């Protein structure tokens, strides 16, 4: 799908550049500038997904999954740079306003590109969530954000045509840049959280705790439960306290049963369980009945 994003991005970019050339609109330039980012970001996502799919090796025993977060961070930085470029163009157009050429034709071409972006962006987000891929989700959300800005740009160009006020064009471009800047900032924040091994949302962690408590029957306690995401893979580790008289085979059976239940709930999960005797109980965390 990442390769498809590159192809779609090139087509959309061509259409938006044509719309800008037809009209000379600063607002349509802002839309085209973001599409340049889309193409470059799709290229990064393509290579990041291929690298992340490589199996673990001696130098990367936990795999290469975090490469997707690097792709998302780079995309966020590119979005911010695009916003700065748009603000610069909006300021130039505000100082030297010019009437728009062939605005209706330009808007029509731009809307065709917007429909294409909306369709592909929705597909990417759905596929990314199913595959738990930050790179695909980030790419899809960026395209959907592009759709929002495109609709705003078309609205602004329409206002210029209806009112005859050329300064509205750079104003819409500047507002578009502010929106794009926020989109890039949030994408960087979320991706850096993944690189820093941020914990999943509270609801997910609590669900995992409940599953451990329900399926680790025979154990006394589970504590020090920790989770993190690395691309589409979730890493989970915790300590499982069992009676001192329990055999290794019996403790292992509890671990196998618990792991099976957890992996049925969360796909692509890597689980590490440290079994301890009852003297190691801390009496907090997940109490297993």
What does this structure look like?
Residues 5-196 form the Cation efflux protein transmembrane domain. Its main location: membrane. The chain crosses the membrane at residues 35-53, 69-91, 103-123, 143-165, 171-188. The protein has 289 residues and is of the alpha+beta class. It is 68% helix and 11% strand. The chain has helices at residues 2-23, 26-52, 67-95, 103-131, 134-163, 168-195, 202-215, 248-265, and strands at 221-230, 233-242, 269-277, 286-287. A four-stranded mixed sheet has the order 3-2-1-4, covered by helices on one side. A hairpin with a 2-residue loop joins strand 1 (221-230) and strand 2. Helix 2 (26-52) packs antiparallel against helix 3 (67-95) and helix 5 runs antiparallel to helix 6. It is elongated.
Descriptive keywords:
alpha+beta, Alpha-lytic protease prodomain-like, Alpha-Beta Plaits, 4-stranded mixed beta sheet, 8 helices, 68% helix, Cation_efflux_CTD, CDF_Transporter, Cation transporter, ferrous iron transmembrane transporter activity, Cation_efflux_TMD_sf
The gist of it:
The protein has 289 residues and is of the alpha+beta class.
Structural class: alpha+beta
The fraction of residues assigned to DSSP E strands is 5-15%
User: What is the tally of helical segments?
Assistant: 8
Evaluate the radius of gyration. Answer: 25 Å
CATH architecture of the largest domain: Up-down Bundle
Instruction: Characterize the biggest β-sheet.
Output: 4 strands, mixed
> How many domain regions?
2
Based on DSSP secondary structure assignment, what is the total number of beta strands?
4
In terms of quaternary structure, what is this? single chain
Described by the principal axes of the CA atoms, the overall outline is: elongated
Determine the fraction of residues in helical runs and give it as a percent range.
55-70%
Here the CATH topology of the largest domain equals Alpha-lytic protease prodomain-like
- What is the H/E order? HHHHHHHEEHEE
Write down the overall mean pLDDT: 82
Fourth-level CATH superfamily of the largest domain: Cation efflux protein transmembrane domain
N-end to C-end Cα span:
46 Å
Strand line-up across the major sheet: 3-2-1-4
């Amino acid at each position: 799908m990442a390769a498809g994003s590159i192809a779609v991005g090139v087509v959309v970019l061509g259409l938006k550049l044509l719309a800008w050339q037809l009209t000379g609109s600063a607002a349509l330039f802002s839309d085209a500038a973001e599409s340049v980012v889309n193409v470059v970001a799709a290229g990064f996502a393509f290579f990041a997904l291929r690298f992340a799919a490589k199996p673990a090796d001696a130098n990367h025993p936990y795999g290469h999954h975090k490469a997707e977060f690097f792709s998302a961070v780079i995309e966020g930085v590119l979005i911010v740079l695009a916003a700065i470029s748009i603000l610069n163009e909006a300021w130039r157009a505000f100082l030297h306003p010019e009437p728009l050429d062939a605005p209706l034709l330009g808007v029509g071409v731009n809307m065709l590109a917007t429909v294409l972006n909306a369709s592909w962006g929705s597909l990417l987000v759905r596929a990314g969530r199913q595959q738990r891929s930050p790179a695909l989700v980030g790419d899809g959300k960026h395209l959907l954000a592009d759709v929002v800005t495109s609709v705003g740009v078309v609205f602004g160009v329409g206002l210029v045509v209806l009112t005859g006020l050329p300064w509205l064009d750079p104003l819409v471009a500047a507002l578009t840049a502010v929106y794009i800047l926020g989109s890039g900032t949030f994408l960087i924040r979320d991706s850096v959280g993944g690189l820093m091994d941020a914990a999943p949302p509270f609801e997910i962690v609590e669900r995992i705790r409940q599953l451990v408590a329900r399926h680790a029957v025979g154990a006394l306690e589970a504590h020090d439960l920790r989770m993190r995401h690395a691309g589409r893979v979730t890493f989970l580790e915790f300590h499982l306290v069992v009676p001192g008289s329990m055999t290794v085979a019996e403790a292992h059976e509890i671990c196998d049963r618990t792991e099976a239940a957890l992996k049925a709930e969360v796909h692509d999960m890597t689980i590490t369980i440290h079994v301890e005797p009852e003297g190691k109980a801390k009496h907090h965390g997940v109490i297993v009945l």
